[in-house]
Write a structure and sequence with these properties.
With about 170 residues, this protein is an all-alpha fold. About 80% of the residues lie in helices and about 0% in strands. The chain has one domain.
Amino acid sequence: MPLEIQTALIAATVALITATIGGYFTWNQIRRERKKWLVDLKTSYAIELYKTRLASYPEVYRIISKLSSRAIEPLTPEKAQQVAHEINDWFYTVGGLCADVNTRAALIELREACLSWTQGDKPTDLMRWRNATLMLLRRDLDLHGLESFNFEDRETILKILEKEASKIEM
């Protein structure tokens, strides 16, 4: 085989190998950039969702507070009906749109429990759904402190704070 053809074949082989390696590295770079872009997009979405929840959840929290056993006015079936309508109104705002699926389900159950109470003693379901809804709203915001608390035991608060302070000092 003539030397010119051998040279051309070697040059073509080297060019093909170089192009393949270059293409492989370019393809990997594109995949890394795409993955980074998706992570950035999902992070931005999560931040905006959190901000939206942080802005809208206090309103439904205020509405649900009317069902508290420590509320200033006693809870009546009429007041529960009013709370159900306020929850329904909130549910069809941005807050209802951005709430987690479990939180939305708990809000619907709470609304139904409020609507179903027409007379007699306060149904136990109402308070169970109230507590579950509050817990889920707090969970959506990644807030801690849902543990049971004894309002009579003030020393517990100090012990908890001392424990947390000692962890920070370490």
